[in-house]
Specification:
Elements: H1 3-15, E1 18-24, H2 30-40, H3 46-50, E2 53-54, E3 57-58, H4 68-73, E4 80-85, E5 90-95, H5 103-110, E6 115-121, H6 136-147, E7 152-158, H7 166-184, E8 190-193, H8 217-222, E9 236-238, E10 241-244, E11 256-261, E12 266-267, E13 272-276, E14 281-288, E15 297-298, E16 302-307, E17 318-320, E18 328-337, E19 348-353, E20 356-369, E21 376-377, E22 387-398, E23 411-415, E24 422-428
Parallel strand pairs: 1-5, 1-6, 6-7, 7-8
Antiparallel strand pairs: 2-3, 4-5, 9-17, 10-11, 11-16, 12-15, 13-14, 13-17, 14-16, 18-22, 18-24, 19-20, 19-23, 20-21, 20-22, 23-24
Length: about 425
């Protein structure tokens, strides 16, 4: 790839809409921050502002807290997505809940995010005595974002307008955040002091405020890249929908179109593919993009494949390059446990991989991760909202790959067989 191509790819990465979420503990100001971004970027109409009044003042948090229970309790429960744009970029922003009970909602939102803004409430930390200990949810949400391979993590230290010495508070909290990042193996893109309520350093920079001379939070977000497509891996596509081809289709090819989103690599006519789980092979006769135009399609985009002959392919099957790793029936991975019931060894769950459902049994809980010390601890089960390492035995082989190399093939969801609740998110080693 030449230099001009690399420059063009970099420009596209920054011109594409950035999907990011806010995370952090309860009442750290996540909803207020989003409200401030929407208002100061002129993405809110006057009649919308009139509808979010509380006690005679504008409550910015109500712009995203739309559920009745959220407004009654003053907390975020579900993820609310909003859209706004600046002259430099378009954004898709998600307000994720901070309460430990709704960690599953945060994981769902972060799994598709390009960036996570982790808010830290300066008024909750004992910074007066030195470098403070961070809240557990700050650890948990930052770790989950790192485990989910979110490309960019930004820490925003909020409510510095409400402390006695904002410069000293920010200095000590920033040191604690960077120490935590170093211990966890994550490198934050920035640590920014803000006041979501009053707007300091959110949209417009406030040079020198809290001793900080860097860009505002919005300026940081405008410079972040979107998640890079995994085009360097072998081709893989989970089949989502099987369509019968028009009656006029030629006899030199199959009469069905297999639709799905390319997970890794790229696909073009003439390419050999292997069907998982049947193991049959065929050649790609035609590739259609999302608007049914024939062309090569790369990872991250939808494609419809017509094969050179009739092959038994159904929803949930995978189409793989011949050089793709062999499907496996055993795996080890990191799990974010989201169920209200603990995860015990020996229990069976449904595992959803792409669009394929198989039974999976938990062979062993290897360890649990202490979110305070970041050290693995012995464990014979995982409690709700814990992060740990487990071994799974699958009833049928799956086309899994390490999550670090391929987010789609490297992840699966565990679902309770009785209640059908989402129980855990597994990242394959």
């Amino acid at each position: 790839m030449d230099a001009s191509t690399l420059i063009h790819a970099a420009d596209e990465a920054h011109a594409a809409p950035l999907r990011f979420i806010t995370a952090g503990s309860v009442d750290d100001g996540k909803s207020t921050l989003i409200g401030r971004l929407l208002v100061d970027s002129k993405a809110v109409l006057q009649d919308q502002l009139a509808g979010v009044q509380r006690a005679g003042a504008t409550d910015l948090a109500l712009l995203t807290d739309g559920l009745q229970a959220e407004r009654e309790q003053g907390i975020t429960i579900d993820v609310a997505w909003r859209y706004f744009a600046t002259p430099a970029r378009k954004f898709i922003i998600g307000d994720a809940p901070g309460h430990e009970q709704y960690t599953r909602n945060m994981v769902t939102a972060a799994s598709a995010a390009d960036a996570v803004v982790v808010l830290v409430d300066a008024t909750k930390l004992p910074w007066q005595a030195g470098e403070p200990a961070l809240l557990p949810q700050t650890h948990r949400h930052a770790l989950l974002a790192h485990l989910l391979r979110v490309p960019s993590i930004v820490f925003a230290v909020n409510k510095l307008d409400a402390v006695q010495d904002p410069a000293l508070a920010f200095s000590r909290i920033e040191a604690a955040l960077r120490r935590f990042g170093e211990a966890a193996g994550l490198a934050p893109r920035a640590v920014v002091p803000i006041s979501a309520l009053h707007g300091q350093n959110v949209v417009e920079p406030a040079p020198g405020w809290c001793g900080y001379l860097g860009p505002s939070l919005l300026q940081c977000l405008e410079s972040l890249p979107v998640t890079a497509a995994e085009t360097g891996e072998a081709f893989a596509l989970p089949v989502q929908w099987v369509e019968k081809a028009p009656d006029g289709a030629g006899t030199h090819q199959g009469r069905r179109v297999f639709w799905g989103r390319v997970a890794t690599g790229a696909v073009r006519p003439g390419q050999s593919v292997r069907v998982m789980p049947s193991g049959q092979t065929a050649t790609v006769a035609q590739v259609l993009d999302g608007v049914r135009q024939p062309r090569e399609v790369a990872a991250g985009h939808s494609a419809g494949l017509v094969l050179d002959r009739e092959v038994d392919v159904s929803r949930g099957d995978w189409l793989l390059a011949p050089e793709a790793p062999e499907p496996a029936r055993e795996l080890t991975g990191t799990v974010a446990w989201l169920d209200d019931e603990p995860l015990p060894p020996g229990r069976a769950y449904w595992a959803l991989h792409g669009h394929r459902w198989v039974k999976a049994r938990v062979r062993r809980v290897v360890h649990r991760l202490d979110v305070h010390t970041l050290q693995p601890q012995p464990a014979d089960q995982l409690e709700p909202n814990a992060i740990g390492r487990i071994e799974l035995q699958l009833q049928e082989p799956l086309a899994i790959r390490p999550f670090e190399r391929a987010r789609g093939p490297g992840s699966l969801v565990l679902v309770d067989t009785a209640s059908h609740r989402t129980a855990g998110a597994v990242l394959v080693d």
